[in-house]
Amino acid sequence: MSESTENNIFKIALNLILTCLVSGLIIGCVYYITGPIAKVKAEQMKQDSMKALVPDAEKFAEVPGEKDTYFAQKDGKTIAYVIPTEPKGYGGPIKLLTAVSLDGSVMDYTMLEHNETPGLGDNASKPKFRGQFKGKKLDHLEVTKDPSKTDLIQAMTGATISSRAVTRGVKEAVEKAAQLGGH
């Protein structure tokens, strides 16, 4: 190999290495600057979601030893539990936050993140589907396609997998609330 060819290879390699280093530094700086802001924003979104689920709560106290699980409190007393679950839906994991009353009935839930099909599975976040869960206890958290079974959760048309996944996530939250002291 000639000396000029070796010199060209060295220059190309040096340019690639410098480009990678500069790119890495830029990405690192952006993450360093925006990382804390993103964490604060995510925490605020979670607090807002919990307040929407349990509007009467004055405070949300983290359950010791339970990640992202909270006691919703008013006047220093627990009035509900706010419990995260992550069932597998049609489009992947569905991050849910479910509020469960002390008597073990579902107050409400919210979908924090999901990849369900727009217009089908993502309808699980809409009031029509969510409303079916309010006041239901563990024994009525079952999906059905039979419209005469009004005491159960009616599956969304074209989104049975998503319906079952959300119901499973809410059911897991109710079971967890029972372990924490609910019924």
Describe this structure in words.
This protein is of the alpha+beta class and 183 residues long. The chain folds into two domains: 1-53; 57-180. The chain is 42% helix and 22% strand. It has three helices and nine strands. It has helices at residues 3-53, 127-130, 160-180, and strands spanning 59-62, 70-74, 77-85, 88-89, 92-93, 95-101, 106-113, 143-144, 153-154. The strands form three sheets. A five-stranded antiparallel sheet has the order 1-2-3-6-7. A hairpin with a 2-residue loop joins β2 and β3. It is elongated and about 85 Å long. The protein starts with a helix and ends with a helix. The mean pLDDT is 92. Its cofactor is FMN.
Helical percent range? Answer: 40-55%
Strand adjacency order, main sheet: 1-2-3-6-7
Number of domains: 2
Q: Unreliable segments (pLDDT under 50, ≥5 consecutive)? A: none
Question: Main β-sheet: number of strands, strand sense, barrel status?
Answer: 5 strands, antiparallel
Number of helices: 3
Global geometry: elongated
Task: Spell out the helices and strands N to C.
Answer: HEEEEEEEHEEH
Tell me, rounded to a whole number, the average pLDDT: 92
Strand content: 15-25%
Distance between the termini: 80 Å
Output the radius of gyration: 24 Å
- The chain-level structural class is alpha+beta
What kind of assembly state do the chains in view correspond to? single chain
* Total beta strand runs: 9
